[in-house]
Amino acid sequence: MDAAKPKKCPFCDPSDRSRVLEDELCYATWDSYPVSNGHLLLVPFRHVNDYFSATDAEKAALWTMLDRAKVLLDGQFEADGYNVGINIGQAAGQSVFHLHVHVIPRYAGDVENPRGGVRGVIPGKRIY
User: Fold this and answer.
1) Residue 65 in domain
2) How far is CA 48 from CA 70, 114, 121, in A?
3) Hey, which residues are catalytic here?
4) Domain that holds residue 69
């Protein structure tokens, strides 16, 4: 076993993944470990570790792709809401160091009390 061999980035070869949307700078793909039906990832083609390392054009393309993703999801799922998030850095839960934006459809009743939404990343701070 070669401990020095880097782990293959799952987003660097998008041909390995099912692309459901794409443009010249980024693509959308279904999350391999979805937290809800319709969980999408928006990913730049260029390997970039995190959002703050992306170019302005890549950032703009991701937000345009978010709008396109919502249209796609609205047509295939009956979501009652959405969470959109980016994990940046290991302390924030980033485990794949290639920028990706989570688009998570939410459904009435999927959790007992959704109040606080993304604040739930720190469970004791979610309900306020």
Assistant:
1) yes
2) 24, 32, 23
3) 100
4) 17-108
